[in-house]
Amino acid sequence: MGNSALKAHLETAQKTGVFQLTGKGLTEFPEDLQKLTSNLRTIDLSNNKIELLPPLIGKFSFLKSLVLNNNKLTALPEELCKLKKLETLHLNGNHLRQLPTAFGQLSALKTLSLSGNQLRTVPTQLCGLRHLDVVDLSKNQIQNVPDTVGELQAIELNLNQNQISQISVQISHCPRLKVLRLEENCLELSMLPQSILSDSQISLLAVEGNLFEIKKLRELEGYDKYMERFTATKKKFA
């Protein structure tokens, strides 16, 4: 892509607060964007070949949405965690194995998508985020869900298509968790905490494609309680 094309994109972004440059084969984050650190509210650089997010990302203090789906990121800089206004972060289809230590400082974050990366566990940093609504960790390499998950504030947690064989009973203590997706994992029925059914806020539990038949789930103690929540939620949205 030529300089004149980039210049045109920059001029538009200055007016709109949105910089979108997708599917252009970019191998690095456009340095020229730093001229717009106070203008930009949205950056979308999906479907490129970006391997590194530079530390200057931390300067975009008004950024609300950052979308870098389908790039080649293997790590994220700590500077990303300075984005106090960031509400939406989409990083699907990269090669991320972990999140920056200070990730919990992204205090405005509502939607986090990390589908199709190489995470091996549910990052503990997520538990510090008070406004999280949706967390998508599907299609990673997560094998177990640790005790810290009990502090997660999310409303929806998507763990579909991982390798989960163990889940901490603490998941039933998540104060706002309504939707838990665990489809296509490696769960035996005995490894599914019954308290998810009998004693949690969860009103939609998706567990198809594990190592048990769904009808066996219906025989578990607490299933009736879960169905009450499920039906009440359905009525609310009907």
From TrEMBL:
GO terms for cellular component: cytoplasm. This is Leucine-rich repeat-containing protein 57. It holds the Pfam family LRR_8. Gene3D superfamilies: Ribonuclease Inhibitor (3.80.10.10). InterPro entries: Leu-rich_rpt, Leu-rich_rpt_typical-subtyp, LRR_dom_sf, LRR_domain-containing. The keyword Transmembrane does not apply. PROSITE patterns: LRR (PS51450). It comes from the Eukaryota. Keywords: Leucine-rich repeat, Repeat.
